Automatic annotation (TrEMBL):
UniProt cofactor(s): Mg(2+)
Residue ranges annotated for the MoaB/Mog domain, each copy included: 173-306
Organism: Anaeroglobus geminatus F0357
Protein's job: Catalyzes the insertion of molybdate into adenylated molybdopterin with the concomitant release of AMP.
Catalytic activity: adenylyl-molybdopterin + molybdate = Mo-molybdopterin + AMP + H(+)
Pfam families: MoCF_biosynth (PF00994)
Record protein name field: Molybdopterin molybdenumtransferase
Molecular function GO labels: metal ion binding; molybdopterin molybdotransferase activity
InterPro entries noted in UniProt: MoaB/Mog-like_dom_sf, MoaB/Mog_dom, MoeA-like
Similarity comment text for this entry: Belongs to the MoeA family.
Involved pathway(s): Cofactor biosynthesis; molybdopterin biosynthesis
GO biological process per UniProt: Mo-molybdopterin cofactor biosynthetic process
EC number: 2.10.1.1
Length: 339
């Protein structure tokens, strides 16, 4: 690629798009890469501020910006998504289905730390819908050294940086605990909330049992639901540290592996997550899930619906932004940017 005076460009092949921006009217290319410049094009090029243009010349050590972006695409494009054609050197990734977006943050950071290239994405760990824009990427200069892109391949080798895990229809067992509900002193207003949240993912409550605060009985029913092939078991109520709250002990007594009890998120600190040996979640839900619009449950539920195990490290990281759920300005986690 070489730079020449625009007046001398007749007959030359442009090696990049020429963009015109008129505020409130248009933003887009007036000439595409590969266009052969004619005499009539010269006034147009000058009118968009191009006193000089870049035209093709052979250089085996360099890649055009579109070719560099294609390297980034190949390193990041995962299952259940597709890439757009390069436009003005930029490629975007688009979701092909509803699911959970996961990101290899270590390799994404490595790529963005190389310089002369960038990848911007949505937050990982949240739901995406078919058609959502997931990421955009490009190299910064018009041409980039092939050696630089080989380095990108080295630091990001392995599975794709971005992956979408489709949601699957789950069968849930729901256990409502509490003497006040069991004896009919108050109405069960917890279960309809859970059913609605699960229904948004196409899941259904296949078994529902209301129990008194009896840890042994709660444990027995959890085991029974698992034996009857429920994909997950959700226990509501009895999750605080009061002496009468027995649900955490009941879950522990099932023999499941406790991942976390006490999440760094408000509302939802008294959340408990555990897994069976075959990775089916058994969850203890605090009372805030019943009345708060968004809680820790809303952050974890997409992973449960996609069958992606949630780790202790995942929950610990939620402390940053863990006060955002009650923000009156945004709709986190639905906004995708966690403002």
């Amino acid at each position: 690629m070489k730079c020449i005076k625009t007046e001398n460009a007749v007959g030359q092949v442009l090696c990049h798009d020429i963009t015109q921006i008129i505020r409130g009217v248009t933003k887009g290319p007036v000439f595409r890469k590969g266009h052969i410049v004619t005499a009539e094009d010269i006034p147009v090029l000058l009118s968009v501020g191009k006193e000089n243009v870049y035209v093709w010349e052979t250089d085996e050590t360099m890649l055009h910006e579109d070719e560099g972006a294609a390297v980034l695409r190949d390193l990041t494009l995962g299952p259940n998504m597709h890439a757009t054609e390069a436009k003005e050197g930029k490629i975007e990734l688009i979701a092909d289905c509803d699911g959970l977006l996961t990101i290899d943050r270590t390799r994404l950071l490595a790529l963005n730390s190389l310089g002369e290239m960038m990848i911007a994405s949505r937050h990982g760990g949240f739901s995406v819908q078919k058609g959502d824009k997931l990421a955009g990427m490009r190299v910064i200069p018009l041409v980039i050294a092939k050696e630089k892109m080989e380095e990108a391949k080295r630091v990001a080798a392995g599975a794709p940086v971005f992956q979408i895990h489709p949601f699957t229809k789950k069968k849930a067992g729901l256990i409502t605990t509490g003497n006040e509900v069991f004896y009919g002193r108050i109405e069960d207003t917890f279960s309809p909330v859970i059913e609605k949240k699960l229904g948004a993912f196409g899941a259904a409550v296949e078994m529902h049992v209301i129990l008194a605060d009896d840890p042994a009985e709660i444990t027995a029913v959890i085991k029974d639901m698992l034996n009857k092939e429920m994909d997950m078991v959700l226990c509501t109520g009895g999750m605080s540290v009061d002496p009468d709250d027995r649900t955490p002990a009941a879950i522990r007594n099932t023999g499941t592996r406790i991942v976390f009890y006490g999440a760094p998120v408000l509302p939802g600190a008294m959340f408990l997550l555990s897994y069976t040996d075959d990775n089916r979640p058994v969850v203890g839900l605090p009372g805030c899930v019943m009345y708060a619009k968004r809680t820790i449950f809303d952050l974890v539920l997409p992973s449960l619906m996609a069958g992606v195990p949630v780790t202790a490290a995942d929950l610990s990281r939620m402390g940053e932004g863990g006060l955002c759920l009650d923000c009156p300005v945004c709709t986190f986690p639905n906004c995708g940017f966690g403002k």
